[in-house]
Design goal:
This protein folds into 2 domains: 3-41, no CATH class; 51-185, Response regulator (Rossmann fold, 3-Layer(aba) Sandwich), CATH 3.40.50. It is elongated, with a radius of gyration of 25 Å. A hairpin with a 2-residue loop joins β3 (58-59) and β4. It has a 5-stranded parallel sheet, with helices on both faces. A two-stranded antiparallel ribbon has the order 1-2. Strands 3-4 form a two-stranded antiparallel sheet. Helices cover 41% and strands 23% of the residues. It is built from 7 helices and 9 strands. The protein is an alpha/beta fold and 189 residues long.
Length: 189
């Protein structure tokens, strides 16, 4: 690109940025024959959190302290697991993680102190339905809440209930709904 065309190009970018971006800036550093670096700034405005995500530990004004409880989260997607863990953090519950159904069965066998299981339905190695059945053979009283995608909630939710799950929750999961479901099934200590 010739130097004239290059300067004209930068002037068009600058004109566009002033017109479209208002409080943003755009600029370029260039060495002819070597290359160019383009830079821009945009204002950052943090998004506000939805009300139920901001206070996941509250349910009808009750603050939950589950420090004496252990929940097994069975979730193969690490991001989903971290979100669930963040929703539960303020309740002080002890969290154990398994990323497939077989590991979930092993965790229940090795950790009799588990009070509740959040079970994803679609898992590698062993799916959530099969894992639920095997877990209930180990501990028939253990409440299991299945996690299903919104599109498949009725189909898989009913299948989970027939397998022995205490309940199911649809993804995406919201903090207030999760806390409410868990509080229904945690055994009294």
């Amino acid at each position: 690109m010739s130097q004239y065309r290059y300067v004209a190009y930068l002037q068009r970018i600058e004109k566009w940025s002033k017109k479209k971006c208002r409080s943003q800036e755009i600029w370029c550093e260039s060495d002819l024959g070597k290359g160019s670096n383009f830079y821009f700034t945009i204002p950052y405005h943090p998004a506000s959190m939805p009300e139920n995500a901001d206070v996941p530990q509250k349910n009808n004004g009750i603050v939950h302290d589950w420090s004496g409880y252990t929940i097994l989260i069975v979730e193969d997607d690490i991001i989903s697991y971290k979100i669930l863990g963040a929703m539960l953090r303020k309740t002080k519950v002890n969290v154990i993680h398994a990323d497939n159904g077989l590991k979930a069965v092993e965790q229940v066998h090795q950790n009799p102190q588990i009070d509740l299981v959040l079970m994803d339905v679609h898992l590698p190695v062993m799916n959530g339905i099969e894992a639920t059945s095997k877990i209930l053979n180990i501990n028939p009283e253990l409440p299991i809440i299945a996690q299903t995608t919104n599109a498949m909630a009725d189909e898989y939710g009913n299948k989970c209930l027939r397998t022995g799950c205490a309940d199911y929750i649809r993804k995406p999961i919201y903090g207030g709904e999760l806390i409410s479901k868990i509080s229904q099934f945690l055994p009294k200590k």
